[in-house]
Amino acid sequence: MTRLSDSFSRGPALVCFITAGDGDTAANLDALVAGGADVIELGMPFTDPMADGPAIQAANIRALGRGTKTADVLQLASDFRERHPNVPLVLMGYANPMVRRGPEWFADALAKAGVDGVICVDLAPEEDDDLGPALREKGIAPIRLATPTTDAARLPMVLDKSQGFLYYVSVAGITGKQSAAVADIEANVSRIKQHTDLPVAVGFGVRTPEQADAIARVADGVVVGSALVELVATHGDKAPEHLRALTEKLANAVHSAR
Amino acid sequence: MTESKPNSFRNQPDDRGHFGQFGGRYVAETLMPLILDLEREYTAAKADDSFKAEFDDLLEHYVGRPSPLYYAPRITEELRKDAPEGKGAQIWFKRDELNHTGAHKINNCIGQILLARRMGKTRIIAETGAGQHGVATATVCARFGLPCTIFMGATDVKRQQPNVFRMKLLGAEVVPVTSGRATLKDAMNEALRDWVANVHDTFYIIGTAAGPHPYPELVRDFQSVIGREARAQMLERTGRLPDLLVAAIGGGSNAIGLFHPFLDDPSVKMLGVEAAGHGLEGDEHAASLAGGFPGILHGNKTYLLQDDDGQITEGHSISAGLDYPGIGPEHAWLKESGRVDYTYATDTEALDAFQLLCRTEGIIPALEPSHAIAAIGKVAREMPEDAIICANLCGRGDKDIFTVAEALGVEM
Q1: Burial (CB count within 10 angstroms: exposed 0-12, middle 13-18, buried 19+), residue B59
Q2: Per-residue pLDDT tens for A151-165?
Q3: Per-residue b or e along B286-313, where b marks 16 or more CB atoms closer than 10 Å to that residue's CB
Q4: Neighbours of B104 (CB within 10 A)
Q5: Which of A143, B172, B294, B377 falls between 20 and 30 A from B334, CA-CA?
Q6: pLDDT at A9
Q7: Would you state the pLDDT for residue B4?
Q8: In the CATH hierarchy, which top-level class contains the domain B19-61+105-219?
Q9: What does the pLDDT read at residue A1?
Q10: Share of chain B above pLDDT 70, in %
Q11: How far apart, in whole angstroms, are the C-alpha atoms of residue A147 and residue B7?
Q12: What ranges do the domains of chain A cover?
């Protein structure tokens, strides 16, 4: 049992995303946990976040503008692990900052910081060698994404060597934009679950407790990012109370499906 | 030949799109199925005589190919003045600046729009920096009646107004991109974001020999018409191959187009010229090979301008067309394999070379090939008088006269 599998074993899980280095990140993370987030996804800022919509792009720019370095992201992670020994923590980001000092260096640093998994947006399964083996060697889950364009022929390749959970991107597009119909999500999640025992979490375009509730009834997890990141943008250092309030509503919605 | 050398330098990439350790397909999962489709479709098109016939026909009658191969006597003489006795190579130019739309970019756009039609795509998007690729894309979209959206950094929109107006005249929608530093790489990010949201009907015409596989390969193949023509023309005119090929490099599409057909001619040396901006010692340059490190951006692994954390830094060059923090992956491989040499020229050197070509040959070059001409100025004097240098004059300078005037302190 890992921290990740444990949190999904209790029924639908709420996965909350914020960007490292944006606002008072440690306080923001604590607010997500206090609000009932089951899994934390911490964004590693990158200059060129090409899969992200305006909200998360802006968060990346704010974080980098404040001088956030890879070392700071790792420190935030290891401090989080000390404060919250049982809450799974996943890093999400782009390949270049992850492989810059070599995949072994990165995997080792994550293991020391107590990180449970990595979502690397632009590392297709075809290029797994760049990071996957080093992560698995250190017991860190490489979490892959499947999308509406991932067809049946391709799905086994995506699932192969995938660990932790599968992140189902519910719309063909960027983060935070439009939302998919629940019926489509249900059909796709059940299609994916025929091929894997991994929990399937659904993200991209999930903003409200109502959406979270509906998705939690058809999936193992719900990922919310842009809506939380926008609270950090709007409220700055006052963000934690707002993050906690929204997370509570989302968590209630997701957990009510248990 | 040592064991580590490949039998041919012309059989890359491998079936996974890798040029040695470079290239590949580093894209979000949403795009992967489309990239694989494109690869299948391109493989089929390559084997289809009617595709090749249509491409060749358009290049001849619409683009104006073959472009001339021109011996440039006065710049040759000018450079010999400073050369030691018996030195000073002959300078020849492949005149791709005479193409329709004024640069080599159109070769690739013709090829890609034919692929888009083959795949049944009904909408075209592209990124542009200086606007040359945007103009070429808008041109082929007008020619084939497809709607076209061009992403252009807001900074570039301001400094390249004539090209913005050209694109609009041709019927394109120009979207100013304000994210990041609002230049070429941000335009490419935004084009990728549009593409990922519109995969079902949209074809992305990438402007240089970079991006996820199969783009570096197909852009190279479409641009290789430059080198195939130059090779045949040189043999016909002189009965021999050139001793040295020279081309400017931003992403590297004109250079790979010239070089690739010659890669297995061991007597032909090659020199790619990056933009050194204000010099390599600071951050104000765009020389990814000379001043960068291998990394992953925009779908491929290649040399990138980046910091210790892998954050991408902004390139600078007086030539907006060279102002990109990466380079096509095949160049990264050709550098590491030693087959091609790479050097650089600064803004100042390029400006001097620009004026030299204007005065000696009556040709106003774009600032991009002015970098190649600057490098020729250094190497021609080391080579014997009967040696032949062939450089790609990949664009004309009409678009650059305002930039040059400003740099020379001339009010227009």
Answers
A1: buried
A2: 999 999 999 999 999
A3: bbbbbbbebbbbbbbbbbbbbeebbbbb
A4: 31
A5: B377
A6: 96
A7: 61
A8: alpha beta
A9: 78
A10: 99
A11: 41
A12: 3-255
Nearest Cα of chain A lies from the Cα of B322 at a distance, in angstroms, of 19
Q: Which residue of A has its CA nearest to B308?
A: A100
Establish if B384 touches chain A: CB-CB under 8 angstroms. no
Q: Give contacts of B 312-371 with A, CB under 8 A.
A: 312
Shortest Cα distance from A203 to chain B (angstroms)?
Answer: 13
All structural domains of chain B with their residue ranges:
19-61+105-219, 66-102+223-407
pLDDT in tens, B132-183: 999 999 999 999 999 999 999 998 898 788 899 999 999 999 999 998 778 8
CB B100 within 8 A of CB B64: yes
* Closest Cα in chain A to B186: A48
Token reading at B143: 């020619």
* CATH class, B66-102+223-407 region: alpha beta
Q: Do B29 and A145 touch (CB under 8 A)?
A: yes
Query: Does the beta carbon of B175 lie under 8 angstroms from any beta carbon of chain A?
Result: no
B53-61: average pLDDT: 98
Among B29, B204, B305, most A C-beta atoms within 10 A, so best to mutate, is: B29
Give the pairing of strands B202-204 and B123-128: parallel
What DSSP designation does B312 have? B
Beta bridge partners of A202: A168, A222
Q: Is B405 on the interface with A (CB under 8 A)?
A: no
SS3 B128: strand
Question: Measured between CB atoms, which of B32, B36, B311 is closest to A97?
Answer: B311
Cα of B89 to nearest chain A Cα, Å: 43
Instruction: Catalogue the active-site residues of A.
Output: 41, 52
pLDDT tens digits for B207-223? 999 999 999 999 999 99
CA angle at B105 for the pair B102 and B110, rounded to the nearest 5°: 110
Is A3-255 in CATH node 3.20.20.70? yes
Cross-chain Cβ contact B306/A169 below 8 Å: no
Asked if A61 and B199 come within 8 Å (Cβ–Cβ), the reply is: no
Closest C-alpha to A258, from A45, A8, A75: A8
Q: Least CB-CB distance to A174: which of B27, B193, B304?
A: B193
Structural tokens at position B89: 């190579």
DSSP annotation of B395? B
Which of A48, A64, A95 has its CB closest to that of B189?
A: A48
Element (H, E) at B207: none
User: Which of B33, B310, B312 is nearest residue A150 as measured by Cβ atoms?
Assistant: B33
ipTM of the complex: 0.96
Q: Is the pLDDT of residue B303 over 90?
A: yes
Strands B244-249 and B299-304: unpaired
> β-pairing, B22-26 with B202-204?
unpaired
Q: Closest partner residue to A149 among B30, B296, B308, by Cβ?
A: B30
Q: Which of A96, A166, A200 to mutate to test the interface with B (most CBs of B within 10 A)?
A: A96
Q: What is the pLDDT of residue B1?
A: 43
SS3 sequence of A140-168: CEECCEECCCCCCCCHHHHHCCCCCCEEE
Are B295 and A96 an interchain contact pair (Cβ–Cβ within 8 Å)? yes
Q: At what angle do helices B367-379 and B73-80 cross, to 10 degrees?
A: 40
